[in-house]
Fold:
Amino acid sequence: MTNADPQELAKFSDLAHRWWDLEGEFKPLHQINPLRLGWIDGLAPLAGRRALDVGCGGGVLSDAMARRGARVLGIDLSAKALKVAQLHALEAGTAEVEYREVSAEDLAQELPAAFDTVTCMEMLEHVPDPKSVVDACAALVKPGGWAFFSTLNRSPKAFLFAIVGAEHVLDLLPKGTHEYARFIRPSELAQWCRDAGLELRATRGMTYNPITQRYALGDDTSVNYLVACSRPA
Structure:
């Protein structure tokens, strides 16, 4: 069975046409994209590398990595989002990026150890079996390559900020975007990475200041956080 929630796919498919609206529902993704792109590129330079973006949606990160010089494959199970990503690549003239409708697990069977860098950002909290995705990402990374994950901490603060605040008070995200029970503690994600044969290299938190309306990377992992791992050579 495909590791996907039909309701989650339907939810994001309905919003697919809004992926590249910088003032729409995906505005937060566009705002955090330079931060996560810079962090990834700083740890594992993208130029000339083969990169995979798992759960790429409309291609916000995939497109940015390609513009940093990587050869990028973005994968997702939302056909509508992929069409939006493909159209944007054509309109923007982004070279070296392609998109496929395939699961990480199936691609891991097809192309094991094929990528220098694998990213899986803001996706694990939307699938029934996130550990399976982590396992697949680890299998897709070349020895010596890097895997990057980002998700939401299952903490009272994350419930307050990411659901009550972001969805109901500040209207940063559509209501129902996240389900608290699916949030993942850093210790859980770290264990899944180790079980998959990855070595944890760095963790960063991401915070939002509602006054300045800016995001920043720092040490606070209580709400949003990113994890960088490498696969031993």
Observations:
- The chain has eight helices and eight strands.
- Residues 6-230 form a domain with the Rossmann fold fold (CATH 3.40.50.150).
- Residues 204 and 226 are 5 Å apart (CA to CA).
- The first strand starts at residue 50 and ends at 54.
